[in-house]
Amino acid sequence: MANVFIVNHDVKTNVRGKKNIYSWLNNVATNEKKTIQSLTIILCSDEYLLSMNRKHLNHDYYTDVITFDLSDTSTYIVGEIYISVDRVKENAASLKQKFVDELHRVMVHGLLHLCGYMDKSSAQIKQMRNKEDFYLLYRKHFIA
After folding, report:
1. Is the CB of residue 34 less than 8 Å from the CB of residue 75?
2. How far apart are CA 125 and CA 131, in angstroms?
């Protein structure tokens, strides 16, 4: 799946089973009636993502994920998902989850944004969480 890439920016995180993750994410997109043309997932530090949040969104706070939709069509996905590994580790600990499960949650969260889902209102947040939970269960078909 040469259309999905996971890269480290200013952190060293070993993500296992990348090909399986790529297959899973491509299938999520297909389920959502989209095709991933190009998706780059950039793993970075809290500080780097904070600078991105300030620069591009005028938000002055830490976050776990920021998604940039670079598509020029509603059918194909071209985008970047920036994920703070620091935030994911902290969230996983506080939620008593495995790091890899929380990492996969924010990956699919970013992809769902690229599929058109929002998380501003309580109804949107509920829909997003339901989709995340569904696709986290669905990943067992791709990731052991």
Report:
1. yes
2. 10
pTM of the model: 0.95
Confidence of residue 18 (pLDDT cuts 50, 70, 90): very high
CATH code linked to domain 4-141: 3.40.390.30
pLDDT, position 73: 85
Rg value, the chain, Cα? 14
Distance, in Å, from the CA atom of 141 to the CA atom of 144, rounded to the nearest integer, reads: 8
What's the number of CA atoms in the CB half-sphere (13 Å) around residue 6? 21
Cα separation of the two ends of the chain: 18
- Going by C-alpha positions, the residue among 15, 13, 4 that lies closest to residue 111 is 4
Nearest CA among 99, 102, 104, 131 for reference residue 115: 131
